[in-house]
Amino acid sequence: MIYLKLQALSYGHSGVQLATVNRLIDFYNNDIIPVIYTQGSLGASGDLSPLAHLSLPLIGLGKVYYKGEIISSEELLKVFSWDKISLQSKEGLALLKRNTIYVGLREFIVCLKAHKLSYLADLIGYYFFRGF
Questions:
Q1: Which of 8, 51, 53, 86 is the most exposed place for a label (fewest CB within 10 A)?
Q2: How far apart, in whole angstroms, are the C-alpha atoms of residue 16 and residue 14?
Q3: Do 110 and 126 belong to one domain?
Q4: Where are the alpha helices (DSSP H) in the chain?
Q5: Phi, psi at residue 33, to the nearest 5°?
Q6: Is the pLDDT of residue 100 over 70?
C-alpha cells in the first residue's frame, strides 16, 4: 500500500510536500508498516479509514510494525530522530484519496494466482516429460 501511495503521489499532481513523500519512502525502505485495522469500529469497507491509518504515523499518531513488534509512532519518530510532518493545505485529502487499498489487494491476489499457475505448470511439465 505504501508503494502504491508513493506511486500515486509521485506524479506531482496531488500537491503534497516533498517531505511527506520522502517520509513514506523512508517507511518503505526501513520496512515500517503502519497498523491498519480490518475489524471492529476502525475497520471499514472503503478506503478512507485504512488510508487514514496508513497516514497517521506521518504526523506521529497511530502504531506501526517495526522489526517484528508493534510500537507507537511517537517511539518510531524518536528511534529515527524524525520530526512529525506538518500537513499543509489539502495534503490530508491527497493522502486519503485514490483506491490504493483495492489496487494493492488486487495485485496481491494476482500474484497468488500467478504463483499457483506457475506451480501447476511445473508439476504438469514434470509428469508430462517424465512419462508418469
A1: 86
A2: 6
A3: yes
A4: 2-9, 18-29, 48-55, 73-80, 91-96, 100-130
A5: -120, 115
A6: no
Q: What is the DSSP string of 50-71?
A: HHHHHHGGGGT-SEEEETTEEE
Give the torsion sign (CA, 3, 6, 11, 14).
Answer: positive
Burial of 67 (0-12, 13-18, 19+ CB in 10 A): exposed
pTM for the whole structure? 0.68
Give the pLDDT confidence of 14-67 residue by residue, as tens digits.
788 888 889 999 999 999 999 987 765 554 556 677 778 888 899 989 999 999
Q: Are residues 91 and 28 in the same domain?
A: yes
CB distance 55 to 8 below 8 Å = no
Beta bridge partners of 71: 64
Cα angle at 54 between 42 and 103, to 5 degrees?
95
- Are both 49 and 104 inside the same structural domain? no
Sign of the four-CA dihedral 68, 74, 80, 84: positive
Residue range of the domain that includes 46: 2-98
